[in-house]
Amino acid sequence: MPKLKDVCRHIRSKQAGPFWITFDIYFNSRENFTRYCDDEALSTEAFASLYGADPALVKRIPVPQLDMIKISYPRPTPQGGMVERDMHAGQQYVRLSNICLG
Question: Which sign does the torsion angle of CA 44, 7, 69, 91 carry?
Fold first, then answer.
């Protein structure tokens, strides 16, 4: 089974305002986008489990014109708070890049 990083040309995470984190998953081909876009490993439930988010609040937006998926979820604490460990959310993608696809 391939890992997400094996079928993508770019995976990034970033802050989307003080209350949200967003991920951009760019597949390396139209074929891989079509094959893995609806994979269970990229579902809102799987994503929520991986990041400890409420599945009802996870937003998942496929963008077929760009062969990518955007996934966003609310931060557990606001950006810049006392317990903030990744102010710009730039390191959050690492956990996602190693998931296995079916």
Answer: positive
Q: What residues does 25 pair with on adjacent strands? A: 11, 69
For 76, the token pair is: 């557990």
Domain boundaries, the chain: 4-97
Q: Are strands 59-63 and 68-74 parallel, antiparallel or unpaired?
A: antiparallel
For the segment 21-41, what is each residue's pLDDT rounded down to a tens digit? 999 999 999 999 999 999 999
Q: pLDDT tens digits, residue range 10-20?
A: 999 998 888 89
What span, in angstroms and rounded, lies between the C-alpha atoms of 21 and 76? 10
CA pair distance 86, 90, nearest whole angstrom: 7
pTM for the whole structure = 0.89
